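Side project, low priority. Logging it here so it doesn't get lost.
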Amino acid sequence: MFDQILGLPAHPLIIHFAVVLTPLLVAVAAAYALLSRRRAYVAWAVVLLSLAAPAAVFAAKQSGESLRSARFATADGALGARISTHQSFANPLLLSVVGLAVAALLLVYATRPARDSVGGDRLGRPVTLGLSVLTLVLAAVAGYFVFRAGDSGARAVWGS
């Protein structure tokens, strides 16, 4: 499933979704955590990106594993080292994006007013503050790993 798309290796095509959606999730989740007065405007984007970005990263990881086993299983030397470095960022990226998505979704849930209340947070101010901090930390971690994965992938392909 993650090997080819129309006869082309799937990984170079699929990674573009992860490379675009993950930084968008990082930015939108951070904005949601920091800009409490603007939350109503970006809540829908947080929810959609929290669903799409982890799926894109998972697909990129799986397609990368398929590409390596199909075309680079015997790669050694400098190319093998570059591929291994690139591959080493796959699991941390996936875990950090899933963590960010869960934290962001919980933050959206926590900040939605309850039906029987006039205002305020659904789970209380301390929980909302904690989720905001967690979201910001995970956004920074996911941003770091998406950069490192993308950079190491480009270096693996272009050899510098």
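Brief comment: The two ends are 31 Å apart (CA to CA).
Revisit when time allows.
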